[in-house]
Protein: Aldehyde dehydrogenase family protein
Organism: Streptomyces platensis
Amino acid sequence: MSSAGRLFIGGEWAEPDGGHYEVIDPATEDVVGLAPEASREQVYAAASAAAGAFPAWSRTPPQRRAAILDRAAEVMQRDFAAHAEVAQAESGATTGTARGMQVAVGVARFRRYAKGALEPVEQGLPPQINEAGRGGTSHALKAMGEGKAGVLGALAVRQPVGVVTCITSYNNPWANPAGKIAPALAMGNTVVVKPAPQDPLSVYRMAAALAEAGAPPGVVNVVSGASAEVGAAAVDAPDVDMVSFTGSTAVGQRIAEVCGRGMKRQLMELGGKGAAVVFDDADLDSAVAGIGTTFSFYSGQICTAPTRVLAQRGVYEALVERLTRYLGRLTVGDPRAPGTVVGPVISAAHRDRIEAYVALGRKEGARVVAGGERPSAPERGFYVAPTLLADCTPDMRVVREEIFGPVVVVLPFDEEDEGVALANDSDYGLIDYVWSGDIARAFRVARQLRAGGVGVNTVGRNMEAPFGGFKKSGVGRDVGSYALHAYSELQAIVWPG
């Protein structure tokens, strides 16, 4: 049976109970394809299939799991060009982003966790010596008929959690799902994947690659839908043991409530309002290049972006001026055209939301230095002009709330302590940034920032470093080996020496 427009449940391509909905190209407003709309019963069936497949998959030798993940990466790489075209069409990414940051990163993550499947899951702990006749443990051992107390050995063993629901974000339909599915499978879990409704087609291609690579039926299941009911069912399904979610804090809070009632494990990567603290002695060219990625990378639809710039008074005007010049050089338009830097945002509704925030910022008293008006071309598509708001104050909503678009706000500060306080004055704490020529100060400030990650003089990421947020930016950590830990439970095994 063809996979086109069908759900993937228990190793079979299934007709959706809810029919289909259109996936729209954000750059042209054309229909890319039809995505299946699952019913609650079909989502529950996917979770049941995953639960049925879990015992055998969790006992599958790590070498076998690694081979399947490696083979899946090869299959994805084989069809790289076609995958990139689909990813670009449904997400609106520029050609370079669709190829290099979406599909290529997705393939790389499967390769990384093929190796991850072979990482040790057992850690020997120091033996505990209990002298006979002393302490509660020795008496307890005697009471249980184990004779004299002596040496107790122990292992900490990482065990798979069980069935993991993976709810993915729309800004990267390859890297984000791969970053959940691959480590979950490497650890011996089975998965139910609920893709973002805006761009689910890429995730079905990923499932097809895994099936071709030899993933047993039920190990990977994909159910999509434009209705919130599909995601809700993927969270509350009785067979689901853990939910891994990337998306807004508001949705994450609702998911957490359901998980709390069922004591389901959670991994949450939520919103961000990254502070970029720029000191007087900073390399402004480096700072501008880093902050400027917000205007272009995914059209600002990225939670790690340095959207909140805190500039020390001595460089404030110079930084605003340089950011304005940087912004003026960015080409907005068709993401398929050579030279385009800023493509569309994901939907008309999101474009309108971003524009409403810019209007709100102007009303609140921010100075619109650049942008603020809808681009005149292209005529079709969901385009937003990269926008710079200066002279902002900490109480403004454009400073406090995640806009998730190509909008940067700038605030001045005087002393180091004030810069730190402003950076921490946020409900979010995903990734912050510090630019300073004084490395000792940069690291001192970094340690004071309440964020899951801090970039010092860079917006680059080390892909083995733990990733996740403080405060309302999330729960838990993944990336590198930390992702394997996130999709596991710790078991203690103790024995007499």
About this structure: Residues 449 and 492 are 35 Å apart (CA to CA).
